[in-house]
Amino acid sequence: MGNKNTRTSISELGEFGLIDRLTQNFTTKNGSTIKGVGDDAAILEYREKQVVISTDLLTEGVHFNLMYVPLKHLGYKAVAVNLSDICAMNATPRQITVSIALSGKFSVEAVEELYSGIQLACEKYQVDLVGGDTTSSLTGLTISITAVGEVEKDEIVYRSGAKPNDLLCVSGDLGGAYMGLQLLERENEVFKVNENMQPQLVGYDYILERQLKPEPRADIISTFRKLGIKPSSMIDISDGLSSEAMHLCKSSGVGCNLFEDKIPMDFQTKKMAEELSINPLVAALNGGEDYELLFTVPLDDYEKIKNDPDFTIIGHMTEASEGINLVTAAGSAIPLQAQGWNHGAAK
Ligand code: ADP
Ligand code: MG
Known about the structure:
Mean pLDDT: 93
Shape: globular
Number of domains: 2
Bound molecules: adenosine-5'-diphosphate, magnesium ion
Structural class: alpha+beta
Order of helices and strands: HEEEHEHEEEHHHEHEHHEHEEE
Number of helices: 10
Radius of gyration: 21 Å
Oligomer: single chain
Helix content: 25-40%
CATH architecture of the largest domain: Alpha-Beta Complex
């Protein structure tokens, strides 16, 4: 990455020089990548598999705040959230393209930081960077990533396949990313008032990672294969459990009972919530950005999933007429509200 103190302006390198510099350390690893960066378009070969494609667009000030999000983390997360969408189809991610619009405040070194995070994610998840586009912007950074993956036709899982009596399950734990964001925002406010204040982040490494460095659950897709499970429906949790559960129910034409006291939450999530006087349930239900997988399986698969530490059964599907309900610890059913996390101010 060169000397931390050097600042090379993008105009010194020019667009093509910048693209060369950003992509020179990337190598392709997948057989399906025939041609990556360097021509007018990439060439992929998928033979008898089905091809899965997903895109996300992130804008500075709306989806991320560079005051407390390091560029390297941003690059990693931008890739991670796209791979998560591919995983949510029960597919394996293989390639990405990365398009960026940059304002004058970004140096070549800053964009290299962004790409070092992109590269880290590519290596961890064994995906190839096969192209993109580079342009200028008047207002900060915009980054758009497209991910491509593969899946056998009969392995694809849509949002629409849940049936009444199916078990509703989730991977990992929820609410951590939201509580991590609350912590970062609190410290950012303190910093704005007094630049000499050191951030109080000790003991909260897990929720900070959940916010800054989310991991797509590609491992869960492998676990499904190993356990011989094909979920009847699935979605990744980007906007919060409530809204994703409603998506599954609406797409599948079913209802559900989701049990409040079954929702998995980490100790740090609960501790931070207590410190900030936030109900941790609200973080799990409406916080979002956890990038866990929410899925349903037929009741017959209960034995296969009950002992897996990655999975928690949080409810079951019902006839649509029974509604979409949160069952409280006291046993009363209340209709679920989808609030979806709004990324920053807009949306
Ligand atoms: P074109 O003029 O056809 O858009 P470019 O000069 O933009 O071509 O791109 C040249 C090559 O570099 C292409 O393979 C393109 O996909 C790739 N590329 C351009 N920008 C990026 C980027 N930000 N990240 C990765 N690859 C990029
Ligand atoms: Mg171009």
